[in-house]
Protein backbone atom coordinates (compact mmCIF):
# COMPACT_ATOMS: atom_id res chain seq x y z
CA UNK A 1 0.00 0.00 0.00
CA UNK A 2 2.79 2.39 0.92
CA UNK A 3 4.63 1.53 -2.30
CA UNK A 4 1.45 2.08 -4.33
CA UNK A 5 0.91 5.54 -2.82
CA UNK A 6 4.49 6.44 -3.62
CA UNK A 7 4.03 5.43 -7.24
CA UNK A 8 0.77 7.38 -7.46
CA UNK A 9 2.45 10.48 -6.00
CA UNK A 10 5.31 10.15 -8.45
CA UNK A 11 2.87 9.99 -11.35
CA UNK A 12 1.11 13.16 -10.15
CA UNK A 13 4.45 14.93 -9.79
CA UNK A 14 5.58 13.98 -13.29
CA UNK A 15 2.23 14.97 -14.75
CA UNK A 16 2.31 18.38 -13.05
CA UNK A 17 5.91 18.92 -14.10
CA UNK A 18 5.01 18.06 -17.68
CA UNK A 19 2.22 20.63 -17.66
CA UNK A 20 4.59 23.26 -16.30
CA UNK A 21 7.19 22.51 -18.97
CA UNK A 22 4.55 22.53 -21.69
CA UNK A 23 3.34 25.92 -20.50
CA UNK A 24 6.90 27.24 -20.45
CA UNK A 25 7.59 26.00 -23.96
CA UNK A 26 4.29 27.42 -25.15
CA UNK A 27 5.29 30.81 -23.78
CA UNK A 28 8.61 30.58 -25.64
CA UNK A 29 6.80 29.78 -28.87
CA UNK A 30 4.92 33.06 -28.93
CA UNK A 31 1.60 32.43 -27.14
CA UNK A 32 2.04 35.74 -25.31
CA UNK A 33 -0.86 37.80 -24.08
CA UNK A 34 -1.76 41.46 -24.39
CA UNK A 35 -1.97 43.69 -21.29
CA UNK A 36 -5.75 43.14 -21.24
CA UNK A 37 -5.28 39.37 -21.09
CA UNK A 38 -6.28 38.59 -24.65
CA UNK A 39 -4.06 36.40 -26.81
CA UNK A 40 -1.51 38.37 -28.82
CA UNK A 41 -1.65 38.10 -32.61
CA UNK A 42 1.44 36.64 -34.30
CA UNK A 43 3.98 39.10 -35.67
CA UNK A 44 3.38 40.09 -39.28
CA UNK A 45 6.18 40.90 -41.72
CA UNK A 46 5.97 43.09 -44.80
CA UNK A 47 8.53 44.05 -47.46
CA UNK A 48 9.09 47.55 -48.84
CA UNK A 49 10.85 47.44 -52.23
CA UNK A 50 12.38 50.84 -52.90
CA UNK A 51 15.04 52.61 -54.94
CA UNK A 52 18.67 53.19 -54.12
CA UNK A 53 19.02 56.27 -51.85
CA UNK A 54 15.99 55.75 -49.59
CA UNK A 55 17.64 53.34 -47.14
CA UNK A 56 18.01 55.89 -44.35
CA UNK A 57 14.56 57.39 -44.88
CA UNK A 58 12.62 54.13 -44.65
CA UNK A 59 14.79 52.78 -41.84
CA UNK A 60 13.73 55.67 -39.60
CA UNK A 61 10.15 55.50 -40.90
CA UNK A 62 10.02 51.80 -39.98
CA UNK A 63 11.42 52.45 -36.51
CA UNK A 64 8.61 54.95 -35.88
CA UNK A 65 5.83 52.92 -37.51
CA UNK A 66 6.45 49.49 -35.95
CA UNK A 67 5.83 50.44 -32.27
CA UNK A 68 2.93 52.70 -33.24
CA UNK A 69 1.16 49.89 -35.10
CA UNK A 70 1.78 47.47 -32.22
CA UNK A 71 0.34 49.90 -29.70
CA UNK A 72 -2.75 50.60 -31.78
CA UNK A 73 -3.43 47.06 -33.04
CA UNK A 74 -1.87 44.82 -30.35
CA UNK A 75 0.18 43.12 -33.05
CA UNK A 76 3.90 43.26 -33.70
CA UNK A 77 5.00 44.17 -37.21
CA UNK A 78 8.39 43.98 -38.90
CA UNK A 79 9.08 45.99 -42.05
CA UNK A 80 11.91 44.71 -44.22
CA UNK A 81 13.61 46.81 -46.90
CA UNK A 82 15.00 46.11 -50.37
CA UNK A 83 16.94 48.72 -52.36
CA UNK A 84 18.52 49.00 -55.80
CA UNK A 85 18.13 50.72 -59.14
CA UNK A 86 14.46 51.60 -59.56
CA UNK A 87 14.02 49.79 -62.89
CA UNK A 88 15.62 46.50 -61.76
CA UNK A 89 13.60 46.68 -58.52
CA UNK A 90 10.38 46.91 -60.54
CA UNK A 91 11.43 43.95 -62.65
CA UNK A 92 12.23 41.95 -59.52
CA UNK A 93 8.67 42.48 -58.28
CA UNK A 94 7.30 41.50 -61.68
CA UNK A 95 9.47 38.37 -61.54
CA UNK A 96 8.09 37.36 -58.15
CA UNK A 97 9.76 39.33 -55.36
CA UNK A 98 7.13 39.40 -52.58
CA UNK A 99 6.85 43.17 -52.11
CA UNK A 100 3.89 44.27 -50.02
CA UNK A 101 4.54 47.89 -50.98
CA UNK A 102 6.71 49.56 -53.60
CA UNK A 103 8.22 53.02 -53.13
CA UNK A 104 10.06 53.38 -56.42
CA UNK A 105 11.71 56.39 -58.05
CA UNK A 106 9.49 56.75 -61.11
CA UNK A 107 5.81 56.52 -61.98
CA UNK A 108 6.74 54.37 -64.99
CA UNK A 109 8.43 51.76 -62.79
CA UNK A 110 5.38 51.40 -60.56
CA UNK A 111 3.01 51.37 -63.52
CA UNK A 112 5.07 48.66 -65.22
CA UNK A 113 4.07 46.41 -62.30
CA UNK A 114 0.43 47.46 -62.77
CA UNK A 115 0.61 46.44 -66.43
CA UNK A 116 1.42 42.89 -65.33
CA UNK A 117 -1.72 42.76 -63.17
CA UNK A 118 0.23 42.69 -59.90
CA UNK A 119 -0.91 46.16 -58.82
CA UNK A 120 -4.59 47.01 -59.30
CA UNK A 121 -5.90 49.61 -61.74
CA UNK A 122 -6.24 53.12 -60.35
CA UNK A 123 -3.35 52.66 -57.90
CA UNK A 124 -2.27 56.28 -58.22
CA UNK A 125 -5.52 57.60 -56.71
CA UNK A 126 -5.67 55.26 -53.69
CA UNK A 127 -3.49 57.45 -51.46
CA UNK A 128 -3.39 61.22 -50.90
CA UNK A 129 -1.68 63.61 -53.30
CA UNK A 130 -1.70 61.07 -56.15
CA UNK A 131 0.23 58.60 -53.97
CA UNK A 132 3.08 61.08 -53.48
CA UNK A 133 4.07 61.50 -49.82
CA UNK A 134 7.05 63.56 -51.02
CA UNK A 135 8.75 64.94 -54.12
CA UNK A 136 12.39 65.64 -54.93
CA UNK A 137 14.69 66.91 -57.67
CA UNK A 138 18.18 66.58 -59.14
CA UNK A 139 20.97 68.87 -57.92
CA UNK A 140 24.76 69.11 -58.33
CA UNK A 141 27.41 68.13 -55.81
CA UNK A 142 30.88 69.62 -56.40
CA UNK A 143 34.27 69.55 -54.72
CA UNK A 144 35.05 71.99 -51.91
CA UNK A 145 35.15 75.58 -53.12
CA UNK A 146 33.58 74.62 -56.48
CA UNK A 147 36.95 75.01 -58.28
CA UNK A 148 35.41 74.70 -61.78
CA UNK A 149 32.70 77.28 -60.97
CA UNK A 150 29.83 74.97 -61.90
CA UNK A 151 26.51 76.79 -61.50
CA UNK A 152 24.13 75.59 -64.21
CA UNK A 153 23.55 72.80 -66.71
CA UNK A 154 25.63 74.37 -69.54
CA UNK A 155 28.69 74.20 -67.28
CA UNK A 156 28.53 70.40 -67.39
CA UNK A 157 29.68 70.21 -71.02
CA UNK A 158 32.76 72.38 -70.64
CA UNK A 159 36.12 70.83 -71.47
CA UNK A 160 37.78 69.23 -68.48
CA UNK A 161 34.55 68.70 -66.50
CA UNK A 162 34.01 65.07 -65.49
CA UNK A 163 30.38 64.30 -64.59
CA UNK A 164 29.25 61.43 -62.39
CA UNK A 165 25.67 60.23 -62.94
CA UNK A 166 24.16 56.74 -62.97
CA UNK A 167 22.91 55.04 -66.11
CA UNK A 168 19.49 56.19 -67.31
CA UNK A 169 18.91 52.65 -68.55
CA UNK A 170 18.75 51.26 -65.00
CA UNK A 171 18.46 54.13 -62.52
CA UNK A 172 15.67 56.56 -61.69
CA UNK A 173 18.34 59.06 -60.71
CA UNK A 174 19.95 58.52 -64.11
CA UNK A 175 16.69 59.08 -66.01
CA UNK A 176 15.85 62.22 -64.04
CA UNK A 177 19.35 63.67 -64.53
CA UNK A 178 19.07 63.05 -68.29
CA UNK A 179 15.64 64.73 -68.41
CA UNK A 180 16.92 67.63 -66.31
CA UNK A 181 19.68 68.18 -68.85
CA UNK A 182 17.27 67.85 -71.80
CA UNK A 183 14.77 70.25 -70.23
CA UNK A 184 17.47 72.83 -69.53
CA UNK A 185 17.76 73.22 -73.30
CA UNK A 186 14.24 72.86 -74.72
CA UNK A 187 12.57 74.88 -71.96
CA UNK A 188 14.99 77.74 -72.51
CA UNK A 189 14.41 78.29 -76.22
CA UNK A 190 16.47 75.44 -77.63
CA UNK A 191 15.28 72.86 -80.14
CA UNK A 192 15.25 69.11 -79.67
CA UNK A 193 18.26 68.93 -81.98
CA UNK A 194 20.04 71.38 -79.66
CA UNK A 195 19.09 69.19 -76.70
CA UNK A 196 20.37 66.07 -78.43
CA UNK A 197 23.72 67.74 -79.09
CA UNK A 198 23.88 68.94 -75.49
CA UNK A 199 23.28 65.51 -73.89
CA UNK A 200 25.75 63.97 -76.35
CA UNK A 201 28.45 66.33 -75.06
CA UNK A 202 27.35 65.74 -71.48
CA UNK A 203 27.71 61.97 -71.61
CA UNK A 204 31.09 62.29 -73.29
CA UNK A 205 32.12 63.91 -69.98
CA UNK A 206 30.89 60.92 -67.93
CA UNK A 207 33.83 58.62 -67.02
CA UNK A 208 31.75 55.88 -65.36
CA UNK A 209 28.09 54.85 -65.43
CA UNK A 210 26.98 53.16 -62.24
CA UNK A 211 23.74 51.20 -62.32
CA UNK A 212 22.17 53.01 -59.36
CA UNK A 213 22.22 56.25 -57.40
CA UNK A 214 24.12 54.95 -54.37
CA UNK A 215 26.82 53.45 -56.58
CA UNK A 216 27.31 56.83 -58.25
CA UNK A 217 27.63 58.44 -54.82
CA UNK A 218 30.38 55.96 -53.96
CA UNK A 219 32.20 56.71 -57.22
CA UNK A 220 32.16 60.46 -56.59
CA UNK A 221 32.46 60.82 -52.82
CA UNK A 222 34.58 57.81 -51.88
CA UNK A 223 36.53 56.95 -55.01
CA UNK A 224 37.11 60.59 -55.88
CA UNK A 225 35.96 60.33 -59.49
CA UNK A 226 34.64 63.37 -61.32
CA UNK A 227 34.18 67.07 -60.65
CA UNK A 228 30.40 67.16 -60.32
CA UNK A 229 27.78 64.61 -59.28
CA UNK A 230 24.18 64.77 -60.57
CA UNK A 231 22.07 63.30 -57.82
CA UNK A 232 18.86 63.36 -55.81
CA UNK A 233 18.52 66.36 -53.49
CA UNK A 234 18.31 64.10 -50.43
CA UNK A 235 21.34 62.06 -51.51
CA UNK A 236 23.30 65.27 -52.02
CA UNK A 237 22.67 66.37 -48.43
CA UNK A 238 23.73 62.97 -47.07
CA UNK A 239 26.81 62.95 -49.28
CA UNK A 240 27.91 66.41 -48.19
CA UNK A 241 27.27 65.69 -44.50
CA UNK A 242 29.42 62.58 -44.62
CA UNK A 243 32.22 64.34 -46.53
CA UNK A 244 33.15 66.63 -43.64
CA UNK A 245 33.39 69.84 -45.64
CA UNK A 246 35.04 68.40 -48.74
CA UNK A 247 31.90 68.62 -50.87
CA UNK A 248 29.13 71.18 -51.39
CA UNK A 249 25.72 71.40 -53.09
CA UNK A 250 24.99 73.61 -56.08
CA UNK A 251 21.36 74.27 -57.02
CA UNK A 252 20.92 75.02 -60.72
CA UNK A 253 18.28 77.67 -61.58
CA UNK A 254 15.93 74.91 -62.76
CA UNK A 255 15.70 71.14 -62.59
CA UNK A 256 13.33 68.23 -63.09
CA UNK A 257 10.49 67.59 -60.65
CA UNK A 258 10.94 64.07 -59.27
CA UNK A 259 7.75 62.29 -58.22
CA UNK A 260 8.49 58.97 -56.45
CA UNK A 261 5.03 57.40 -56.06
CA UNK A 262 4.19 54.72 -53.51
CA UNK A 263 1.76 51.82 -53.96
CA UNK A 264 0.30 48.68 -52.43
CA UNK A 265 1.20 45.50 -54.33
CA UNK A 266 -2.32 44.10 -54.42
CA UNK A 267 -1.69 40.53 -55.51
CA UNK A 268 0.92 40.05 -52.78
CA UNK A 269 -0.98 41.60 -49.86
CA UNK A 270 -4.13 39.68 -50.78
CA UNK A 271 -2.22 36.39 -50.87
CA UNK A 272 -0.27 37.11 -47.67
CA UNK A 273 -3.26 38.72 -45.89
CA UNK A 274 -1.17 41.80 -45.13
CA UNK A 275 -3.29 44.51 -46.76
CA UNK A 276 -4.24 46.24 -43.49
CA UNK A 277 -0.63 46.52 -42.34
CA UNK A 278 0.61 47.65 -45.75
CA UNK A 279 -2.06 50.33 -46.02
CA UNK A 280 -1.39 51.61 -42.51
CA UNK A 281 2.33 51.68 -43.30
CA UNK A 282 1.98 53.90 -46.37
CA UNK A 283 -0.62 56.11 -44.68
CA UNK A 284 1.87 56.68 -41.85
CA UNK A 285 4.16 58.44 -44.35
CA UNK A 286 1.45 61.12 -44.70
CA UNK A 287 1.00 61.59 -40.95
CA UNK A 288 2.63 64.58 -39.18
CA UNK A 289 5.29 62.26 -37.75
CA UNK A 290 5.95 60.67 -41.13
CA UNK A 291 6.14 64.02 -42.90
CA UNK A 292 8.67 65.28 -40.35
CA UNK A 293 10.84 62.22 -40.97
CA UNK A 294 10.59 62.88 -44.71
CA UNK A 295 11.69 66.50 -44.26
CA UNK A 296 14.50 65.48 -41.90
CA UNK A 297 15.98 63.33 -44.67
CA UNK A 298 15.69 66.19 -47.20
CA UNK A 299 12.79 64.87 -49.26
CA UNK A 300 10.19 67.56 -49.99
CA UNK A 301 7.11 66.69 -47.89
CA UNK A 302 3.66 66.80 -49.48
CA UNK A 303 2.13 68.53 -46.45
CA UNK A 304 2.41 72.27 -47.25
CA UNK A 305 2.72 73.21 -43.56
CA UNK A 306 5.62 70.81 -42.97
CA UNK A 307 7.30 71.95 -46.19
CA UNK A 308 6.97 75.58 -45.15
CA UNK A 309 8.39 74.83 -41.70
CA UNK A 310 11.49 73.42 -43.43
CA UNK A 311 11.62 76.00 -46.21
CA UNK A 312 15.24 76.90 -45.46
CA UNK A 313 16.28 73.35 -46.38
CA UNK A 314 14.59 73.44 -49.78
CA UNK A 315 15.64 76.32 -52.07
CA UNK A 316 12.84 77.52 -54.28
CA UNK A 317 14.19 76.68 -57.74
CA UNK A 318 12.08 76.20 -60.86
CA UNK A 319 10.98 72.56 -61.03
CA UNK A 320 9.52 71.30 -64.30
CA UNK A 321 7.54 68.04 -64.62
CA UNK A 322 8.24 65.36 -67.20
CA UNK A 323 4.98 66.39 -68.90
CA UNK A 324 6.62 69.66 -69.93
CA UNK A 325 8.89 67.57 -72.17
CA UNK A 326 6.63 64.72 -73.34
CA UNK A 327 3.01 63.67 -72.89
CA UNK A 328 3.68 61.19 -70.07
CA UNK A 329 6.23 58.80 -68.58
CA UNK A 330 5.39 56.06 -71.07
CA UNK A 331 6.43 58.36 -73.90
CA UNK A 332 9.54 59.43 -71.99
CA UNK A 333 10.56 55.82 -71.47
CA UNK A 334 10.15 54.92 -75.13
CA UNK A 335 11.57 58.09 -76.61
CA UNK A 336 14.59 58.55 -74.39
CA UNK A 337 15.44 55.29 -72.61
CA UNK A 338 13.92 52.41 -74.56
CA UNK A 339 15.91 50.28 -77.01
CA UNK A 340 16.92 52.51 -79.90
CA UNK A 341 15.86 55.66 -78.02
CA UNK A 342 17.77 58.91 -77.72
CA UNK A 343 20.14 57.67 -75.04
CA UNK A 344 21.13 54.60 -77.07
CA UNK A 345 21.83 56.85 -80.06
CA UNK A 346 24.02 59.36 -78.19
CA UNK A 347 25.73 56.98 -75.74
CA UNK A 348 29.24 55.97 -76.72
CA UNK A 349 30.37 52.88 -74.74
CA UNK A 350 34.00 53.52 -75.65
CA UNK A 351 33.93 56.74 -73.63
CA UNK A 352 32.52 55.39 -70.39
CA UNK A 353 32.68 52.37 -68.18
CA UNK A 354 29.50 50.81 -66.91
CA UNK A 355 30.01 49.74 -63.32
CA UNK A 356 27.85 47.20 -61.50
UniProtKB/TrEMBL annotation:
Q: Matching Pfam families, A to Z? A: SBP_bac_11
One BP annotation, GO: sulfate transmembrane transport
PROSITE patterns documented for this protein:
PROKAR_LIPOPROTEIN (PS51257), TAT (PS51318)
Which GO CC annotations does the UniProt entry carry?
periplasmic space
The record, for InterPro entries, names: TAT_signal, Thiosulph/SO4-bd
Coiled-coil stretches: none
- Location relative to the cell: Periplasm
Recorded GO MF terms: molecular carrier activity
> Where is the secretion signal located?
1-26
* Keyword tags: Periplasm, Signal, Transport
Under NCBIfam families, the record lists: 3a0106s03, PRK10752.1
Q: Which family does it belong to?
A: Belongs to the prokaryotic sulfate-binding protein family.
Which protein is depicted? Answer: Sulfate transport system substrate-binding protein
State the organism named in the record.
Answer: Planctomicrobium piriforme
Amino acid sequence: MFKSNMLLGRRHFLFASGLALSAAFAGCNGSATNPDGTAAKPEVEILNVSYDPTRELWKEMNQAFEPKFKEEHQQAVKVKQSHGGSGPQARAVIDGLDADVVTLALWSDTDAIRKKGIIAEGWEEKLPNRSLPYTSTIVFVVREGNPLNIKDWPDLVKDGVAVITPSPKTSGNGKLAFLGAWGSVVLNGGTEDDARKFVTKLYRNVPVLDTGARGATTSFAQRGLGNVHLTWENEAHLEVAEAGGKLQIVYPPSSILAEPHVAIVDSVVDRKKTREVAEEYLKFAYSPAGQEIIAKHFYRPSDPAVLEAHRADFPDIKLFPVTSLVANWDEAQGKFFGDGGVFDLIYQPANVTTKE
